[in-house]
Design goal:
There is one protein chain. The chain is of the alpha+beta class and about 210 residues long. The protein has two domains: about 1-55; about 60-210, Heat Shock Protein 90 (2-Layer Sandwich), CATH 3.30.565. Helices cover about 45% and strands about 20% of the residues. It has seven helices and seven strands; from the N terminus they run ααβαβαβαββααββ. The longest helix is centred in the first third of the chain and has 31 residues, at about 25-55. The protein is globular and about 60 Å long.
């Protein structure tokens, strides 16, 4: 599916930038490109969730310092087009900043990116996101909370029970988050934020600090 989709994306982008076309036609090309990008993200999630489910996605774990990783992800998100409708505040406790995770940094980044993307794309208006990290003993707790509409009840039910109804909105991106965190020996929990919005809490084991050896 990737090859024809890449062609569609390329052609749509060319038409969108073609100043010889009427504005209405260029706007339609923009819509085709936007929807095609959503399809590409879904394909990537489907591929990843299948690999994780059947153990075909090897984890390339190495010591990863939590603070620099989270700061990089927040900065990249703020530089993306999604930041036009989303403000991110980052708060990392000093001991969490130095926490070392035995992690596949690319996969862990994918989990956090999925949650930031959800906050920006599934809320009708401007939304504020709080990305925070604290350390408790041998675990690191990463929280991504927003002040948007919150998870629909059907989505929360599916996430918390594993039971999806006929009309449950797709939760593939959140399921990928769960799988990535579980593959790292951690847990992922989703709930309503107070007083409003959505909240995801990722708990990961912290490895021995090299300085403590």
């Amino acid at each position: 599916m990737r090859t024809p989709l890449a062609l569609i994306l390329g052609w749509a982008e060319q038409l969108e930038q073609d100043t010889a076309l009427p504005a209405a036609a260029r706007q339609k090309a923009c819509g085709i490109r936007t929807q095609s990008e959503k399809l590409r993200a879904l394909i990537e999630d489907l591929n990843l969730t299948s690999k994780l489910q059947y153990g075909a996605q090897p984890l390339r774990c190495q010591p990863t310092q939590a603070g620099p990783l989270l700061r990089r992800l927040a900065a990249e998100f703020c530089d993306s087009p999604l930041a036009a409708s989303c403000t991110v505040a980052l708060e990392i406790a000093p001991d969490a900043d130095k926490a070392i995770l035995d992690a596949d940094a690319a996969l862990l980044a994918r989990a956090v990116e999925n949650l930031l993307h959800n906050a920006a794309c599934h809320n009708p208006g401007p939304v504020q996101v709080q990305l925070s990290a604290v350390r408790t003993g041998k675990t690191l707790r990463i929280t991504i909370a927003d002040d948007g509409a919150g998870y629909p009840p059907a989505v929360l039910h599916a996430l918390q029970t594993g039971e999806a109804g006929e009309n449950t909105p797709h939760i593939l991106g959140l399921h990928v988050v769960e799988q990535i965190i579980h593959a790292h020996g951690g847990t992922a929990a989703f709930a309503r934020n107070a007083p409003r919005g959505a909240k995801a809490v990722l708990v990961l084991p912290v490895t021995e600090d090299p300085a403590a050896r």
